[in-house]
Amino acid sequence: MSSHSMANLSYISSPIIPNEMNNIALLKVVLLHGAVAFLLFGSWSVSEHPPAAVKTINIQMYTLPKPVVKPVEMVNEPEPIVSEPIVLKPEIKPPVVKQDLAFERVKKAEPEVKPIPVVKKQVKPNIKPKVKPKPKVQAKPIENQVKSQKTKPTLIDNKKVSKPATSASAPHKVNNNVKAMAAENTGDAQQIEQYLPIDKTAPKYPKGAMRKNLEGDCTVQYDVNEQGRVVSPEIMGECHPLFKRPSLEATKDFRYKPRMIDGKAVVVKRVKNTFEYRLK
Predict the structure, then answer these.
(1) What's residue 150's pLDDT?
(2) Which end of the chain has fewer CB within 10 Å, C or N?
(3) Is the CB of residue 198 less than 8 Å from the CB of residue 228?
(4) Contact 177, 128 (CB under 8 A)
């Protein structure tokens, strides 16, 4: 290198050390931050809140006028109408007729008829007596609510037998005829007695008929079997509908003595019973 070039190099600044460069940069940064901070604090202003508005209520007092009281007019009330009291008549119920047993009613209904004994009289010879033939009587017991009629055997009246004439064989013949008739009557009486009622209860009077004051008769026809019980009851003739049911129910409860023929019980057909419904 020449001497001239060396002289020019003496006027050039010395080279910067790296540590010094760092300090200078750091100082610049600090100054920059301080300037920014100063500007921020300089422009910062604390805003004050305005005072809160106070609400006020204005109250005004008024005096109301006194109410005008109108006088109340007195109204005359009409006198109450008093109606005459209604007198209710008590309902008079018909008296209940106490029903007696069948046999007691028979005794009260009919007087006892004592059989007239057959008196054997002496017959004059040569005159044959004229004896009227006796018809057979079929027992048809007819009973009702109040009176139970009881069929009785036919009795022989001595007035119907003419006086016998004088004959030797006539007395014996007349006596035999009288005995035969008496035996026949006795047999009929036994047959009738064999199926007379044992238990017969009268029906109760229907309430509907009592309210309507209805009266009437009702005839029931039925058969009596070998055990003396009623079978196949049915209404015969005219009968009010209110009387049909109690009549049939009462008939079903009847009990009879079985009718005996030649030692055997037989059925009795078409027995009729009439119930009389009467208000007393």
Answers:
(1) 35
(2) N
(3) yes
(4) no
Average pLDDT over residues 22-30: 85
Question: In the structure encoding, which two tokens stand for residue 111, read together?
Answer: 């007087």
Q: Does the global pTM surpass 0.90?
A: no
Average pLDDT, the chain: 67
C-alpha–C-alpha distance, residues 131 and 177, integer Å: 9
CB 152 within 8 A of CB 193: no
Domains within the chain, CATH numbers bracketed = 102-140+150-197 (no CATH), 198-277 (3.30.2420.10)
Comparing CA positions, the residue from 248, 247, 251 lying closest to residue 230 is 251
Residue 222, beta-bridge partner list: 271
Q: How far is CA 83 from CA 76, 77, 86, 203, 273, in A?
A: 21, 18, 9, 47, 56
**93 vs 238, higher pLDDT:** 238
Residue type, 71: P
